[in-house]
Amino acid sequence: MAIYGISDAIDGILKAIMGIMNAIYGIFNSIMGIMNAIYGIFNSINGIVNAIFKAINDINNAIGQAIYGMVK
Fold it and tell me: TM spans, by residue (predicted)?
């Protein structure tokens, strides 16, 4: 019967290790998710900044064209 007890103990230890591994995996997945979210936020901020710069550039070009038209 002692043999069964040892095998049960080993089985329990293996299940505990598996549980810990799954928990670590879950933590890594959540960290990756958070990193992806941060990356997405930075990308959207970057897109907004680029759009603002493009708008300013377009406005400057339009003003330049208008002034050029007046001088001409």
Answer: 23-42
